[in-house]
Amino acid sequence: MTYMLDTNTVSYFLKQHPGVTKRITELPLNSLCLSVISEGELRYGLARKPEAKNLHKVVQEFLKRVDVLTWSSDAAQHYGNLRAELEAKGDSLGALDMLIAAHACSIGAILVTNDKAFTRVKKLKVEDWT
Fold this sequence. Notes:
Blueprint lengths: L2 E3 L1 H8 L3 H9 L5 E4 H12 L5 H13 L1 E3 L3 H16 L6 H13 L2 E3 L12 E3 L3
Parallel strand pairs: 1-2, 1-4, 2-3, 4-5
């Protein structure tokens, strides 16, 4: 099973949330991944806090250990279908959340997040470790 960690799950892990930390540390590292979109969100957070040197170091170490997956043409296809499907229902996700959801769907991963908005994506498997 592949688990794609959403940005908020990584944040909980970095803050040492007990439930998230337990799950991440008990799973083999090769079962965890991160979308390059989430990496971008993490790096944005760091850019907003240049003085947080320890946070920078911790995030860098985390990114060295977890597979960061690049976007593929298959992910783009899933994105196009997902966005059209949600918009047809008068529903949507935030732009980056839509990209992350499509990425997780494209690789058949379970998205680990506590953001309930993702549950609106019917084809997406979601788990909340908080």
